[in-house]
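Problem 3 from the worked examples.
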Amino acid sequence: MLENIYKMSRIFADKVKALRHDLSASSMALVGFAAVPVVAFVGVSGDSAIGYLVKSRLTEAVDAAGLAAARQVDVADQTADLQMFFDANFPEGYLGATIDGPYLTPSADGFELEITANAQVPTSFMRVLGIDTMTVSARTVIARARSGMELVLVMDNTGSMCCDGVSDSKIETMKAAAHSLIDIMFGSNETIENFWVGLVPYTAMVNVGDATLNRHLWLTNYTPSEFDPANWLGCVEARSYPRDMTDDPYTVQAWHPALYDNHFDNYWGDRDEVVIAHLRRELGYSAGNTLPSGVATLEDLIEEYLVAELNPQSGDDYYDDDEQLWTHVARLVLGMDADHTIWNWDDNEIADLEDYLDPHDYGGSLPSDLDERSSLLMEAWFRRAYEAEEAEASVDNDADWRSGTIRDAYAEGNDGTGPNLGCGPAITPLTDTRSTIEAAIDNMHAWHRGGTTSNLGLVWGWRVLSPRWQGLWGDASLPNPYFDPDQPTDDTNQPIDKVVIILTDGNNEVYDHNSDGPDSSDYTAYGRLGEGNVLENGTGTALTDRSLARDEIDRRMSQLCSDMKAQDITIITITFRQDNADTQALFSACASPMDPDDPSGERLYYDSPTNEDLAADFDEIASELSRLRISE
């Protein structure tokens, strides 16, 4: 239709020109004099209609191109998308128009993009008046929303995200993507009114903050001396079901502090405690460092172990004095064969034993006290039996093990020790300050041991957002109340969106680094797996099988997702370089629908199989959260 109007206008204009040659001079003067106003009127009307059509199409193209460009962060990408979407919506040569643009100009704070374009349109009738072209323009301003959101990033900080400082590692890629999201959301601003961001790093437990933040007030059964010579860093155990998956504050039920006991898979305490931990494992006693009933001293425990497990002859009274007990332990430590009995030690063999112990900081000679000798030698025996070969070859590691050195920094990896082993960085509560959240992102690292419990990361994300926690994180006004659309909007009822983004690279699981850990696992927020703290459906049979325990944790996470979405919390889920179909399905089902009016439609779930995919997905999420709109 538009092309027909354009063609008819050109034909009519050509006919008027031809008329000048067909009429006599006198007639032509009269006709020309009469035709000029008529042609001018018709020309202006016809050409104006063409100009209006071009302007309408130009405006549509500029709007579409601006929205597409605003979704990109990089200037080059913005420019490319601007041109691509403009060309798709304004075909080349449309109604004969020649385009100047489109041009993109960002505002100083980065929250607005101005897009302009001009079109030169050839005239038909108006050429009679000497006007060969007319210019039409289009302009649009794409704005980002600046207010009304509490956003919490729940980020996997487990050991599988390793390694820190490696540019293309999972942890560094995740941190870069999170920074990009913050760049988009804040623009060039340090703060934005009514916009807050929090961060929940998680491993097999979550760090809520230490005693300097008065988080010890959230605890029960907290004894600071149990962590000596370290301090409690802030990690907590999960509460019993169902409160492990609710937003109940500590005023409803407190938490137990997470204390990774001194044990044979975590050497950090007193020398005797380490030996006791080993002996308890061998003798089948429950976890802990208290001596079992009926055993008065460490020596008694050692003797019980030797008599029950290592006695080379029959009869419980074989070790009839301390010297015989010590001599046999020494034979075990040095690895001598059975021909070396307790009766035939000589000075050279004693010297060999002293040489063996000397590199491990014992002063070059055995203690004179036989009880001390027994403890010392038994420790050496267990170290020999259970420490890795590379640790045996390292004097530093051996000395650290004996002196109870605590090494709980992320850089220690699986070789870490201490009561806070596997306890990552603390939660950063909601803040409106960009530099605060960026510093927290930089402080994320890959923490080893324990496993992965995304359900606990997610529930702490809820607690950071829940109005039931208002004032408990330090700011008396945060988190904001849930918005009630059925009530008038006022100071106590503001339309504040609550959003959680959760990312993982693994499955929910309990890890066993040594493959023979006490109670079948490392320590986690649920304790050790064999302790039976994970119950089927929350109240049934204790699940000590790793696969069954994972199924239960997945079930709890699924229920948690439903409970959070029932509070109108938007959940965005991401699986990163992860190909487990069950976990992908869990995270997909957990995500909120992209269209709230279509709960069975596409979900806010992103599977990012590569580093590049993760970066692109975070940018897309940030653009969606920014709620792009045409403001002018």
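Problem 4, a separate protein:
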Amino acid sequence: MKVTIYDTTLRDGSQGEGMSLSLDDKLKIAKKLDQFGVHYIEGGWPGSNPKDMSFFKEVKKLKLKKAKVAAFGSTRRPNIKASEDANLAKLVEAKAEVVTIFGKSWDFHVKEVFKTSMKENLSMIYDSVKYLKSKRMEVIYDAEHFFDGYKENSEYAIKTLKEAERGGASYLVLCDTNGGTLPSEIAAIIAEVKTQVSTEIGIHCHNDCNLGVANSIAAVQAGATQVQGTINGYGERCGNANLISVIPNLVFKLGVTTVAASKMQELTELSRYIAEICNMPFENNQPYVGRSAFAHKGGVHVNAMMKNSKTYEHISPKSVGNNTRFLVSELSGRSNVLIKSKEMSLGLDKESPETKKILEKVYELESKGYQFEAADASFELLMRKMTGKEKKFFELVEFNVHDEKSEEGKITSRATLKLKIGKAVEHTAADGDGPVNALDNALRKALSKFYPVIKKIHLTDFKVRVIDEAEGTGATVRVFITFQDEKGTWTTVGVSENIIEASWQALVEAVEYKLLKGEKI
């Protein structure tokens, strides 16, 4: 069985809250998706805005090797000819290889949204598909709200599909637009639909019940041969079916032919790259590709993993370009430290005095408020320091942070830094939205001409936790800082009674870790 992958990150995904893609962003994502091997890339709705129309012009210059580019739009408006419809004219003008149009399957929507007759809606579907086919384009028909419509009026919902089929659609894509259908319902309805039409069936699921992936898999098992979704599940409301989970489930769990098996090791990089381009935080607990997807903490688990990784991993993380991680905390034993040592090529064994010292140091620091299970970058730096493998890239001479509030109520933070970098002494100052942001900006400013790689990273998360609540404003605080670049994320931790000092500790270690790893993170 072969299943085609239809990516709609650039259109449906961009409707998610906080998402805003420039033309350049969209072109970069399209190129990456093509390299990975998706079959269709939906570029946008050329009738909705000039940027999307520009995309279809510029994407031709990329000369994509695998993917077909699809333009998205709707069926014609009621009571006019397809050849006179402005939306369809824009789809033709875009000159995309594929056109995907949606139409109404739910009689409720026909009456309440289109305000037209059920007969006219059927004509709108047929006329639109037939007209676009006459322009020598592949036409994919998205049956919007199909499952809701089928449950209320199955006879009419099937009629809408038959009209798209009669018009010449290459796929009839059944959409769970409101995301409220269960996998068992998806499977049963698709099985019935397949007895009524002969055209290939696709599935387009939203994630409002957290079932987008499950519903997509159920659809394939019931006979769907195209899956539509987005990278990292981006999309309106709760998002769309996450292709980063759908694809490996199809390949590794169902043995379905889809994206080339040789490309699966690029899955983690694809997920992180697109998160970076979209300026969205990378979710650590995302299946298959997240930093926590193959992370192990409990001593019993770690001990078993040392004997055979199959004990607590459902697939090899390397098959999707990810890695096994062993977390270190006060619950950890020697096994965790020894595994981290092996990862870092430090050569420790059970009898090494450094092994015991590292564990004792972890216990000591965690009793003071540190947490290393969520800050493995800090733990790696700690291990290197305690085994004499530490590398210092710069030294702090002094820093000062000053906040100022204007008459208009605006607060500005300014940080000044004095660093020693090799034999050079660097003085810098920078403003920021807050003291930590100002320190971050000043540190980058000081280091960027010595270490240009600093320009490629940015802070994506900043968490503060009060450890001793009874101490009030004088309590010890723990700060976690997460940085991200196109290749990954890493987290460091700082602890102090002074929030600026705790933040500085975590900030410095985050930068040191990137410099230590260079381009390899």
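Solution to problem 4. Residues 499-517 form the longest helix (19 residues). The first strand starts at residue 4 and ends at 7.
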